[in-house]
């Protein structure tokens, strides 16, 4: 049974990007998100599940609570992290420093890569794409209509695409709507390659008590069949995997129903 679901936005993603708009700059490292996740899990995640509405600003917990979490984990919680892409890499990186916080991970094609799996030409292409893509529309209705005609969005689940048009856009002070995450911030995120490689190097040292469940597409981003196999078995103890033959890297957007029930097509043997 799941008692609570916490959804995480990095500082320049989603609603966080709107809140932090006046404080964002041209510098961002994926490790910044790892630090923020660790800070929240250690110092702010409430001790107990609470059915009441929580305050917008959570109080900082006493140092005595934090020290117990670092050494023994949570008193009353079991924390299962589901992370996709950037989120999978940056959340898993926390577990190398604070393994007791986590009960298990579900890693949905995370960007955890050997150096040669993340070539510069791909990175530059994604950076350029982020900086030049359209980010403003007259309305959410216009945006959705254009998204539906786009080859990129054609593989997305229709319900997910409608939710994207509703929640990934915000009202623009100049009129119409715009993406919550700017092209500049997206490009800066794509340009960062250090943490995916660092996490790859550390992966074999991850505490074997933490179960890893890998969810991978048949053609993962920046990878080959051989490297996909190497990644999911880099820490073989307490690790399992499933392969989605019908989805690419954006499994969450393309196959949300199958992901939700962990539909198994095959595994990486």
From TrEMBL:
Domain spans labelled AB hydrolase-1: 50-256
* Gene3D superfamilies to which the protein is assigned, alphabetical: alpha/beta hydrolase (3.40.50.1820)
Which key words tag this protein in UniProt?
Hydrolase
Which SUPFAM superfamilies would you find in this protein's record? alpha/beta-Hydrolases
Q: Does the keyword Transmembrane apply?
A: no
Q: Which domain of life is it from?
A: Eukaryota
Q: Name one Pfam family in it.
A: Abhydrolase_6
**This chain belongs to which protein, by name?**
Alpha/beta-hydrolase
Q: Which organism is it from?
A: Boletus reticuloceps
């Amino acid at each position: 049974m799941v008692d609570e679901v916490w959804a995480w936005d990095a500082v320049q993603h989603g609603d966080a990007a709107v809140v932090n708009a006046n404080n964002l700059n041209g510098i961002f490292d994926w490790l910044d998100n790892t630090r923020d996740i660790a800070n929240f899990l250690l110092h702010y995640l409430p001790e107990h599940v609470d059915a009441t509405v929580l305050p917008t600003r959570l109080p900082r917990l006493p140092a005595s609570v934090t020290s117990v979490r670092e050494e023994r984990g949570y008193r009353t919680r079991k924390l299962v992290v589901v992370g996709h892409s950037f989120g999978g890499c940056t959340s898993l990186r926390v577990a190398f420093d604070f393994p007791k916080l986590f009960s298990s991970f579900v890693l949905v094609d995370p960007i955890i890569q050997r150096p040669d799996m993340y070539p510069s030409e791909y990175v530059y292409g994604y950076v350029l794409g982020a900086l030049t893509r359209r980010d403003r529309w007259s309305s959410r209705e216009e945006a959705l209509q254009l998204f539906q005609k786009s080859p990129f969005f054609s593989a997305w689940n229709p319900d997910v695409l409608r939710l994207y048009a509703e929640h990934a856009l915000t009202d623009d002070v100049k009129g119409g709507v715009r993406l919550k995450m700017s092209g500049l911030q997206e490009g800066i995120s794509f340009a960062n390659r250090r943490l995916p490689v660092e996490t790859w190097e550390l992966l074999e040292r991850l505490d074997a008590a933490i179960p890893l469940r890998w969810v991978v597409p048949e053609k993962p981003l920046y990878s080959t069949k051989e490297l996909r196999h190497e990644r999911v078995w880099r820490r073989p103890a307490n690790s399992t995997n499933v392969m989605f033959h019908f989805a690419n890297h954006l499994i969450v957007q393309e196959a949300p129903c199958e992901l939700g029930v962990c539909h198994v097509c095959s595994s990486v043997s």
